[in-house]
Amino acid sequence: MRVTSVTLAASDAGRLAACYARLLGTPVTTDEPGWAQVRPPSPDLGPVLSFEHDRCFTPPTWPSSPGGQSATAHLDVVVDDLDAAVAWALEAGAVLDPFQPQPDVRVMRDPDGHPFCLFTEG
What we know:
Elements: E1 5-10, H1 13-24, E2 28-32, E3 35-38, E4 48-53, E5 75-78, H2 82-92, E6 95-96, E7 105-109, E8 115-119
Parallel strand pairs: 1-4, 5-8
Antiparallel strand pairs: 2-3, 3-4, 6-7, 7-8
Helix pairs in contact: 1-2
Pfam families: Glyoxalase_6
Protein name: VOC family protein
Domain Glyoxalase-like: 6-119
């Protein structure tokens, strides 16, 4: 068995797919009302990211806070140059999260507030 796809709830599936497509340099392969996908050219480059419209979407909070919509998962993205990757993520529509628990990791938020982490290996 292997995981082939990760699905994120979205206030606007197409907008979120466009952000991740730009961030990852991967095309949006499906963009339908309420559903969009970003598919890497090879399964070796990561899973398909799917985005599903949720009309009652509430941005997650992370770390958790009482009464907040807690983030149940986040994406980890390995990069070659952390500063350059942060700049690229900002251009793609992400924001730098105030919560930065490690010096070699940058916590970012996509346009819907889902956290994702940029880090370098080694």
